[in-house]
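Meet today's protein:

…
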Amino acid sequence: MFFKSLQSRIIFLFLTMILVVQFVGFIAIWVSINKNARIAIAEQLSIGEEVLRTVIIRRGESLTLSARILATDYGFRQAIASNDTETIKSALENNSSRIESDVSMLYSPDGVRQVVTTDLPFDKVDKVVSELIASTQVGGNAFNLAVFNGVPYQLVVVPVKAPLTIAWIVIGFKIDDTWAKKIQSESHLEVSFITKTNSLAANSASGA
């Protein structure tokens, strides 16, 4: 570049140095902001994950407690012993209404479905319940998550004993908008549940 005077060269060099310094400073600030943003997002996701895990565990424990109370009811055990389907179904429906659950069923001691109060793809439900019963019998988790018709559920199984196991109570609920909003209120995060099926169809529940 041609400069007519030394003064022009000095001014050009000075301006160039200022621009370089500003550019380097901008890059440093951008990298710092980006790094801090990533750290903040990771922390928020970690908090959200912990809140979700806590809510799932607490809800599972609440369902388990409710099922155990029903399992110890003398009239309910008598209805099972006498194979009184109508009384069993009524007790399950009343308990479901009281705790606001979406699934309430009774299985035989060997895991055969006997009484249901909801409409689900029972071939898939039976498999999940069988796995839960097996887990419970060896001291494992009595509740787990499963997806039916593209909708996630949390299911709980509890034995009915007299004193041997005479049946299994199965209680569950949908993981839906209500759940998403509850987690959002506790974690201050926008929450969405998305389930994927083999057909690549997806359903979601959002707390936005």
In short: The CA atoms of residues 27 and 138 lie 58 Å apart.
